[in-house]
Every structure is written in structure tokens, then in C-alpha cells.
Specification:
Two copies of one chain form a homodimer. Chain A is of the alpha/beta class. In chain A, 52% of the residues lie in helices and 13% in strands. Chain A contains ten helices and five strands. Chain B binds a DNA duplex (30 and 30 nucleotides) through helix 7 and helix 9.
DNA sequence: TTCAAATACCCCCATTTATGTGATTGAATA
DNA sequence: TATTCAATCACATAAATGGGGGTATTTGAA
């Protein structure tokens, strides 16, 4: 029996979803609420397996609700449920540990399937949402194979720069003279086309050299 | 009619998949190859809608094949097909613009459904893969709402530090004295618990303050 | 064999940072 | 009203950095 909590401000939809889910074999709706203002309490007392969470709700909305729950409970599966598949909300929800992201236009049968999937550790997503998620991945892309031809040693130095080490500390860490560190760093700056530690660090992050 | 190219080193599986897909209504397998050594040519001559790509292949493997295709063609949908849902390959594939990631144990009917989904711009993923993708998202997470209580002004300064600006340049940019920049930076260091520019920059990236 | 790259080291010196110890103003708030 | 705090500026000084010159050894590829 999958125990479900439901957060949805629209009374019709809330009723409808409750009926659908609670009326289905193997599902049990423990409660349905119009916003997340008491979600911390509700989750800890009802102990649901899955939370169906609308994003746009007056009062405490779904994203805030998500955060609140995730601050204390990493166990329950949270399925975001919205009308729009807009990039910003998707990203924010997933960043905050949502387990899935599905659109309200999802047909009932599919919805139940999704809940089931979420309950068993899956990550159900509407196709259009999944596509956007993947796009985000490729956007934060590595300029393929672009490590700027840094030599092994230079990469090591850059790693340590990123850790905030000073020249002196790097020298100690690598058992080489500080002057050697300097010449490595000069070479790194050349290759990365930068001329300061902070730029090098920034570039290392941006281009995932680290 | 969905035009499919297939890359799979195992002869049995290659045959089997070809039969399955080509034998199904609405699908057409244009070709099936045992590795990606000629993929650039094959893709440009066959112009498939979907590529089914095994990852582990001798010679030019699936990830390399993916990269090769994406270097010239952003249009075709590429579905990665593997035995294991190991984190590293998933991440790498998605980074390089794969459109989906499904396991070989996927039942035939589901497989066809996935190909269809990929062809129409979706991003089919096996549930376990989707779950891992989401986990990656929340791993690269912001310590929720944690901007270390930087004031507006301090954030601005940090932004410029990240851009590699020197104190002097920041002062000029913000129309304030260098000493003021200094005191802002001191405050920033305090709040971030660091004591150098490069550490601050690294932290800014890690915690997405920028 | 020759040559380029990578590695390691050295010196000099101007500039930049990091740190410390102040002060003043104005806005918010208790 | 008193107090706090962000934001601004000032002066001093030691340490670290960046940019400019170099040299020597090793290693692997042409």
C-alpha cells in the first residue's frame, strides 16, 4: 500500500486526485492540503511514501514545501506536479531534491504508474521535462576534451590553486621549489590565457578542468 | 516512418534488435554496425532520425561515437543503450548530448516506445537512470538558501572577483575607493570562512553564489 | 640523432594582496 | 533615543603574486 500526501490548491483537482488515487488498488491518500504551511508537521505525523506536490499554490508554495521537507526528511519521494514545464522551476525543483516532475495533463493511468515508480525509487518525468533536463546537462557542457593541453604537473598545480593554496603551500605539497611552482603557474596562465590566480580558478571551474 | 541506425558489437543482439525494430510497423533500420569507426560518414549518408548506440564496443566506442556525431550533427536523436547504469557513463553521455539512456534489459515493446519518444523530441530514460540523473542534480546542490548572508554590495564585489578583477579594477568598476573594496573583501572572507581571493572564487563557484 | 616539451630550478622587482587598526556616515531597528 | 550595521574611506606593513629574464635534465617523438 503506497501512502500518499497531496498538496494542491485547486479544490476540484484536489478532490479529483484524491478520489482517483485513493480509489485505486494499492494506493492510500492520507491527506490532501491546499498549501504547504503545515507540511513539516504533516509529513512527520503521516509519514507518507510519496508526496504529490503542486508548485503554484498561494501561501507556502510547492518549491518552499519541497525545501522544508528535504531539510528534515530525505526519505519520502516527492513528485512535483505542475501545469507548465518551464525550465526555471524544473531546475529549482530538481536541485532541491524532487524525485520527479510531471505535468498535470498526465492521464490518470499514467499518473498512478508514476506514483508507483516514485515509491520504488524511480524518477518519473514527463517526456518534455526529461528532454529539458537533458538539455540542461549538455548546456553545462565540457568544451569536449578541452583541458588546454595542461601537462600532468600543471594540472596538479591548478588543482591546488583551486583549493586556495599559496605558492609556498603548493611547493611544500608537491616537494618542489617555490620557483618551480611559479614557473608552472606561468605556463598555466599562458595556456589558459589568464593572468591571475582567481581567473585561473574560475576557468578551472567553468571548463571542468577540476 | 522512423529511420534508425544501430551500433552494437554483439552480433546476436545486433541481429535481434534489427529484426525487432525493422519488423515493427513504422520503423526502418537503415543499417547496423559493430562499432563507430565510420559513424560520421554513415550518419551523413543515411540521415537517420534515431541512433541506438551501445556504449561498450571495441574500436570506436559509443561515447566517442556520440561525440563525433554531435560535432557535426545536432539534429539526430541519440539513444544510449547499455547493460550497466553506472554513474560515470550516464553523466558523460548526457554531457555530450545524448537524448536518452536506456538499459538493454528493457523489454522489446518498451524499447520501441522509447525510440518513438526519442524521435519526437522526448528523452526516454530507464527509471533507474532517471533516478541517478536527478541525484546528480541534487548533488551539485546549493546548500539551500545559503548565500552566506552576503550583502548586495558584497555579492557584487564577489562577482567581480570571480571575473578576475583586481582590487583596483573593482574600485573603478564600482566607483568606490580601493580601501572600501578591501574592507568589503575582508567582510566576504569572514563570511565565507576563507582568506584568499582564489578560495573565495572557488567557493563562489561551488556554492553557486555566482 | 636532434629537437621540442615537460620538468625543475634561479634571480630581480614592481604590484597586489592580506591583515590590522582605525574613523565617519546614514539607515534601520530595538 | 540609543544602538547596530552596512558602506564608505584611511594608513601602515608584511607577505604573496605576476612578469621578466635565465639554465639544466630528462624524455619521447620525429
Amino acid at each position: 500500500m503506497i501512502k500518499v500526501l497531496l498538496y494542491e490548491d485547486n479544490p476540484q483537482l484536489r478532490e479529483g486526485l484524491t478520489m482517483l488515487i485513493d480509489g485505486s488498488e494499492g494506493f492510500n491518500v492520507l491527506g490532501a492540503f491546499k498549501n504547504c504551511s503545515n507540511i513539516a508537521f504533516e509529513v512527520s505525523s503521516y509519514k507518507p511514501d510519496v508526496i504529490l506536490m503542486d508548485i503554484d499554490m498561494p501561501g507556502v508554495n510547492g518549491l518552499e514545501g519541497l525545501r522544508i521537507v528535504r531539510q528534515q526528511n530525505t526519505d519520502v519521494s516527492i513528485l512535483m506536479l505542475t501545469v507548465f514545464d518551464d525550465n526555471k522551476n524544473i531546475f529549482e525543483a530538481l536541485q532541491n531534491g524532487a524525485n520527479g516532475y510531471i505535468l498535470k495533463k498526465t492521464p490518470p493511468a499514467k499518473l498512478l504508474e508514476y506514483i508507483q515508480e516514485a515509491a520504488t525509487g524511480g524518477a518519473p518525468m514527463t517526456a518534455s521535462v526529461a528532454a529539458q533536463v537533458l538539455k540542461m546537462f549538455s548546456q553545462i557542457n565540457i568544451p569536449a576534451g578541452n583541458d588546454y593541453n595542461l601537462s600532468e604537473r600543471e594540472k596538479q598545480v591548478l588543482q591546488l590553486l583551486v583549493k586556495g593554496y599559496s605558492y609556498k603551500m603548493i611547493a611544500a605539497e608537491m616537494f618542489i621549489a617555490m620557483d618551480t611552482v611559479r614557473s608552472h603557474i606561468k605556463k598555466i596562465y599562458e595556456k589558459l590565457h589568464v593572468n591571475s590566480k582567481s581567473e585561473a580558478v574560475a576557468k578551472a571551474f567553468r571548463d571542468r578542468i577540476v
